[in-house]
Amino acid sequence: MSLVDHLTRPKAATVRRAPAWRWQAGAVLAWLVILAAIFAAIVPGWFTSFSATEGIAGAQRLAPQAGHWLGTDQLGRDLYARILYGASHSLAGALVAVALGLVIGTLLGVLAGATGGKTESVVMRIIDVLLSIPGLLLSLSVIILLGFGTVNAAIAVGITSVANFARLARAEVVRVRHSDYVEAAYGSGGTFFAVLWRHILPNSLTSVIAFSALQFGNAILALSTLSFLGYGTPPPTPEWGLLIAEGRNYISTAWWLTTFPGLVVIAVVLAANRISRQFSGERR
Questions:
Q1: CA–CA separation, 284 vs 281, rounded Å?
Q2: I want to staple 232 with a disulfide (CB 3.0 to 4.6 A). Which of 9, 22, 37, 153 is the partner?
Q3: How far is it, in rounded angstroms, from Cα 98 to Cα 218?
């Protein structure tokens, strides 16, 4: 055995025998976090008996304790209940934003990648213009035009993600379009739409779906940022970003008002990113 083989074989074996159980445990934990957030969004009343909007007299800014696991806010509202009920607004807004970006961006990317020529040039120049505008600035511009609210904020975030979806979809369609089996399908008499539907789309949209999981976490962050700045969901709606914004004035005396909503946002975003990596790994 040569010196090169002697040096490379243990390294290759180490790569193949990497502790996969750690990655599997991380994926399971990520799915548990996402499922818990989904259940909280669908049936929050199963997990708490407190109201998310009505305060309790004499219970202002209570520290975490047995009766109130995460404490109460400045109006005596249970923070745990507000986080649970806020999941529906945050997750629904992120879902709308991702769906909007996925549908419009994928259509533009497939159109550009499948047709080529002048159509591709025009579409990609539009995408370049969208990419040149900072996402937060574009979101604020759309909200100013549409008005405040969860739906309008979700639409604004979705528009900012159109360019990323379109660029990825176009790259995948171009890659698959030049594959041997696609050329063989054309050579056997397949029409443009038949080859696009049967061969190009099924083999090019997997990475786009994986990217949508990543974009879901980014959408939650973007919506929380807009609500924190006062451009998203108006009070007293218990949206996660708004909860963080409401508690920032009491961070020195009631740290839990910003800490716990912030930890929830971080956990859900990290879980969405981990699931996206899992989909990307399965594709490879």
A1: 5
A2: 153
A3: 9
